[in-house]
Amino acid sequence: MDSGDILALISGITIVILVAVLANPQYVSWQQVSVENPSRPAVTAPQTQVPVLTTTVSVEPSPVVTPFLPKPDAPPYRILYTDKPFSYPLYKIPENMETFGASEIPWQTREWVPFAFVENTRGGLTRVFSVPYPVWLINTTVVAENHPQYGIFRMVLCYADTGGIIKGEEILRGGRSYRIVQSSNTDMYMIISVENIDSYYISLETPGNYYDTYRAE
Questions:
Q1: Domain range for residue 204?
Q2: Same structural domain for residues 12 and 86?
Q3: Strands 112-120, 77-78: parallel, antiparallel or unpaired by DSSP?
Q4: What is the DSSP letter of 106?
Q5: What is the DSSP string of 117-140?
Q6: Would you tell me which of 17, 168, 180, 204 could form a disulfide with 100, CB atoms 3.0–4.6 Å apart?
Q7: Strands 124-125 and 112-120
Q8: Quick one: pLDDT band at residue 215, thresholds 50, 70, 90?
Q9: Sheet holding 77-78, edge to edge
Q10: How far apart are CA 201 and CA 186, in angstroms?
């Protein structure tokens, strides 16, 4: 075979290879998987796993706020009406209230501290109560604005065992009255009668030094 034939043969083989490569380019890519030879895996880009960060938030319970409430036995104590007035030894106001005289004058040089009170718009008999202080004051304020000319307030303080009257007062057409009492550590009650008044407030008070010394804990 001469050289011309050899060159023609080589040229023919080269042309066949080029045509095959152009028609099937996947055979020359080493990164792809051959259909005929699946044992050669394709190389894929590595996958990076991003760690998931879990944050634990500690939630403290909200504090329970307890509103301030005064003790139920903190003075001044309210003295209420009884529902059994006819069981008391005396349950009617005496007819002659003039015997108790005019309002007394409290000691102006002392500080009077309230420890109990009676407040209402109607009359009645209070529940039995006791006072530990050797000297105390009945400070009564009566309001009579609708019919002041007809307003009448009467009160007597009585011993609970006998009904004997300790102190009494009468206020006409509204105003204020003071009564100094020196009965202590004994059961007492009040009889109150009203006519044409709007309201009244009775404050039981004692000097500050007695309040601190004799107050029952």
A1: 77-214
A2: no
A3: parallel
A4: -
A5: EEEESS-EEBPPB----SSEEEEE
A6: 168
A7: unpaired
A8: confident
A9: 77-78, 112-120, 199-207, 136-143, 175-181
A10: 23
Asked whether 199 and 187 are in contact (CB, 8 A), the reply is no
Residue 66 in any domain: the answer is no
Classify residue 193 by its DSSP letter. E
The residue to which tokens 């894929």 are assigned: 44
How many other CB atoms are there within 10 angstroms of residue 37's CB atom? 7
CA 199 to chain centre: 30
Residues 24 and 81 in one domain: no
3-state secondary structure string across 149-192: HHCEEEEEEEECCCCCEEEEEEEECCEEEEEEECCCCCCEEEEE
The structure's pTM equals 0.66
Q: How far is CA 32 from the centre of its chain?
A: 78
Is 143 exposed, middle or buried (CB count within 10 Å of its CB: 0-12, 13-18, 19+)? middle
Asked if residue 205 is part of any domain, the answer here is yes
Average pLDDT in the 164-182 region? 96
More confident residue, 162 or 51: 162
Number of domains in the chain: 2
Q: Cα–Cα–Cα angle for 115, 182, 173, nearest 5°?
A: 70
Residue 48, domain member (yes or no): no
Q: Is residue 50 part of a domain?
A: no
